[in-house]
Amino acid sequence: MPLELIPILALIAMFAAATLLPINMGTLGFVAAFLVGTLAVGMNTDDIIAGFPSELFLTLVGVTYLFAIAQNNGTVDLMVRGAVRMVRGRVAFIPWVMFGITGVLTALGALGPAAVAIIAPIALNFARRYKINALLMGMMVIHGAQAGGFSPISIYGVTVNNIVAKADLVNSPVALFLGSLFFNAAIGVALFAFLGGRSLIGRTVHDDIETPEDINETADGSGGPTPSGDGRGGTTTMSSTRVETEVDAPLLPTKSVTYDQVLTIIGLVALAVFSLILDLDIGFVSMTVAAVLALASPKAQKGAVSQISWSTVLLIGGVLTFVGVLQEAGSVEWVGNGVARLGMPLLVALLLCYLGGIVSAFASSTAILGATIPLAVPLLLAGEVSPIGVVVALAISSTIVDVSPFSTNGALVLANAHDVDRDKFYKQILKYSALVVAIGPLIAWAALVLPGWL
Question: Which residue from 39, 45, 63, 169 lies 20 to 30 Å from 411 (Cα-Cα)?
Answer without folding.
Answer: 63
